[in-house]
Write a structure and sequence with these properties.
Blueprint (H helix, E strand, L loop, with lengths): L1 E8 L2 H15 L4 E7 L6 E7 L5 H8 L5 E5 L7 E3 L2 H16 L4 E4 L9 E3 H8 L3 E4 L10 E3 L7 E3 L2 E8 L5 E3 L13
Parallel strand pairs: 8-11
Antiparallel strand pairs: 1-3, 1-4, 2-3, 2-6, 4-5, 7-9, 10-11, 11-12
């Protein structure tokens, strides 16, 4: 089952907070992603949660008093259940489709995310954390014994049904995640 919510989050930080709230409300193992929604007057971020459990009712209850778009896809259903303002339903639908196809999204929660601690060899990180592929920015080679400092925070991407963790060079011949937990906004100082 996939439940996607578009709460018109303006950035990934706001969408992450929504994901954390939804994950707490369902109390089930999930794969949770954020999805960029474009094509209207203001790009924004929607979220999706995928699970074998029925997530629809806890999530509906959690967002009942919010102005959100909702798309619920159930296994075997011929079409999704949609609710909310049309602009936000469109964003939720886009998120649900991307989650179903595995073509896009920034992964916030997945089985294995809780194992992302410390410095790990690339091969162990992939196995322990459920990462399918490591991709170095700038084409830096990654061998199985290349050390990666997780910084206790990973945000892989979903591409072609796989979890792809982008990494970058750091001091001491280590690689670190490309997306850091505490991002500095571009041009934040002017």
């Amino acid at each position: 089952m996939i439940v996607a919510v578009d709460a018109d989050s303006l950035d990934t930080a706001a969408a992450d907070h929504l994901v954390y709230d939804l994950v707490a409300a369902v109390d089930q193992p999930v794969v949770a992603l954020t999805h960029m929604v474009s094509g209207d007057d203001r790009p924004h971020v929607a979220v999706s949660l995928t699970s074998t459990a029925d997530l629809a009712e806890p999530i509906r209850a959690m967002v009942a008093d919010r102005n959100v778009g909702l798309a619920v896809t159930r296994p075997g259903a011929s079409e999704p259940e949609l609710a909310g303002p049309s602009r936000l339903v469109r964003g939720a639908y886009v998120a649900a489709v991307e989650a179903a196809l595995g073509t896009a999204g920034r992964v916030v929660r997945w089985p294995g995310h809780e194992q992302a601690h410390g410095v790990l060899p690339a091969a162990e990180l992939r196995v322990r954390c459920g990462i399918d592929h490591l991709e170095a920015i700038g084409g830096v080679p990654i061998a199985d014994d290349t050390l990666i400092d997780t910084l206790d925070f990973l945000r892989p991407l979903r591409r072609d049904g796989r979890l792809i963790l982008q990494v970058q060079p750091s001091a001491g011949a280590l690689l670190i995640p490309f997306e850091l937990q505490h991002q500095q906004n571009c041009c934040a100082d002017h």
